[in-house]
Design a protein that fits this description.
CATH class of the largest domain: Mainly Beta
CATH architecture of the largest domain: Beta Barrel
Strand order of the largest sheet: 3-7-4-6-5-8
Radius of gyration: 22 Å
Number of strands: 15
Distance between the termini: 52 Å
Shape: globular
Number of helices: 6
Low-confidence stretches: 1-38, 194-212
């Protein structure tokens, strides 16, 4: 075994059994072996309301964020440029852009079409194409299995404890680059919200010969993420135009939309109160995109694509 491989083996062993080490130190290995710092460091940012293409967005801290919609991805044209929180975008890292979540935030993105799920770090703003709820880096799109397709039906869930932790690090001037990588390993255990984020190994004993897939970048070792798999359920695509507290109001509104097609009423109970959503059922992302564009062009700026 070469000296370099032996050193890497020791680092991997430390990575797997370092139960009391904070995730930034024990699992990111974000500092180069030479001791120099990571290549870019972003700042914590929530931001003020802003308007893009006539639509206003309201950035806010939302630890209950859990939504479905359409994901896209971005890469070559932005590689090497600054993200919204001041980092240098790397299309090969596991990051994402979101219109309103704090930067950085940690979210779980699940591809509802194939069941693949990945934890990513949000460090940029976007996407601003109507109907998209998150923009994944090229590498994240590859891992989730939709790079070649371009888009996918997804669920995006904020991980509260991890998001609080990275916010704390960024506010204190410390780097969060790559901190999302070890969160995707089976041995990672999410902490209670009230506790400090720790990396916890579920393995009682680990052989130093165990091979962990990964890559060396700028002298630092990054273990490759392990994709979680969830059961695939049939998901429908809707273009939602509004929601009302009475069925009558919803029906009247739906009738006013006849020139766009046949809108339907979908009731839902939220906090013991019934609401009536006005939606157009569609059969594909492309059809939903086309209908959404027509609605937005005709002044229905709050219309959105829903995967349900």
């Amino acid at each position: 075994m070469s000296k370099k491989l032996y050193i890497l083996s020791l680092l991997l062993l430390f990575f797997l059994i370092g139960g009391c080490s904070q995730i930034e130190l024990a699992s990111h290995f974000g500092k180069k072996m030479t001791g120099s710092s990571v290549k870019s460091q972003g700042k914590y940012k929530v931001g003020s309301p802003y308007k893009i293409k006539g639509k206003k967005y309201y950035p806010a801290v939302d630890y209950n964020y859990n939504r479905t919609g359409i994901a896209s991805w971005y890469g070559p044209n932005f590689h090497g440029k600054k993200t919204a929180n001041g980092e240098i975008f790397d299309q090969n890292e596991i990051t994402a852009a979101h219109k309103t979540l704090p930067l950085p935030s940690i979210v779980r993105v699940t591809n509802l079409e194939n069941g693949r799920s990945l934890i990513v770090r949000v460090n940029d703003r976007g996407p601003y194409a109507y109907g998209r709820i998150i923009d994944m880096s090229k590498r994240a799109a590859e891992l989730l299995g939709f790079k070649n397709k371009g888009v996918a039906k997804v669920r995006v869930q904020v991980l509260e404890a991890e998001s609080r932790y990275v916010a704390q690090l960024a506010k204190s001037g410390r780097s969060t680059n790559g901190i999302e990588v070890p969160m995707n390993h089976p041995s990672y255990k999410s902490p209670n919200v009230s506790s400090n984020v720790k990396y916890v190994s579920n393995n009682k004993a680990v052989s130093h010969k165990q091979y962990i897939p990964g890559h060396i970048k700028n002298g630092a070792f990054y273990p490759d993420p392990v994709i979680s798999e969830f059961p695939v359920k049939t998901q429908n695509i809707f273009v939602q135009v509004g929601a009302f507290s009475t069925r009558e109001s919803a029906m009247n509104y739906a009738s006013s939309l006849d020139k766009f097609g046949r809108a339907q009423i979908y009731p839902i109970i939220i906090n013991d109160k019934e609401y009536f959503r006005v939606r157009f059922p569609t059969t594909s992302v492309s059809i939903a995109d086309s209908l959404l564009k027509k609605l937005v062009d005709n002044g229905y700026k709050n219309a959105l694509i829903i995967v349900d």
